[in-house]
Amino acid sequence: MMQDCLKKGALTSEDEIVIKGTAGTLYAAGTDTTLTSIMVFILAMVQPPDIFQKAQEEVIQVVGETRLPEFNDRTSLPYLENIITEVYRWYPAVPIGVPHLASDDDVYRGYYIPKGSMTIQHMGNVP
Ligand code: HEM
User: Which region is the signal sequence (predicted)?
Assistant: First the structure.
């Protein structure tokens, strides 16, 4: 598709580099992290079977057995949500609390964050 677009002049060679870089980044960022998290989830679920049973019961109660879960169901599945958070805590695929540097002065929920401050994101369920 990109070669067709390049031939038609719809993309510049710079666009081509950006598209390839973006696709590569998504692939690299998404594969090992997802695979590791799914494996840790399975490892957790085969250990104490009552935890898996509780999660399964919640899914059946909320989603039923005739369709797959959707993102909209997520807030109605607190037990499963907490299992997923525990997966990230137990064996994180990558360090989760990555520090960031504020590139400008900012205000967040009434807190003044001066330019140059280090902030660390909270990954839990903050209301
Ligand atoms: C369980 C799976 C995953 C975990 C644990 C994970 C973890 C992380 C973490 C900790 C960061 C750094 C966030 C920060 O700057 O504070 C990050 C960034 C990023 N992740 Fe993931 N990730 C996962 C899945 C994915 C998937 C599936 C994709 C793409 C399809 C993806 C794409 C990215 C990208 C592009 C960034 C950089 C975002 C930016 O520009 O700041 N990740 N991820």
Answer: none
37 near 87, Cβ under 8 Å? yes
- Would you say the C-alpha torsion 85, 90, 96, 99 has a positive or negative sign? positive
Annotated domain spans of the chain:
2-97
pLDDT one-digit tens code per residue, 14-68: 999 999 999 999 999 999 999 999 999 999 999 988 999 999 999 999 999 999 9
Rounded to the nearest angstrom, the distance between the alpha carbon of 83 and the centre of ligand 1 is 19
Report the chain's terminal Cα–Cα distance, integer Å. 44
How far apart CA 123 and CA 96 sit, in angstroms, is: 8
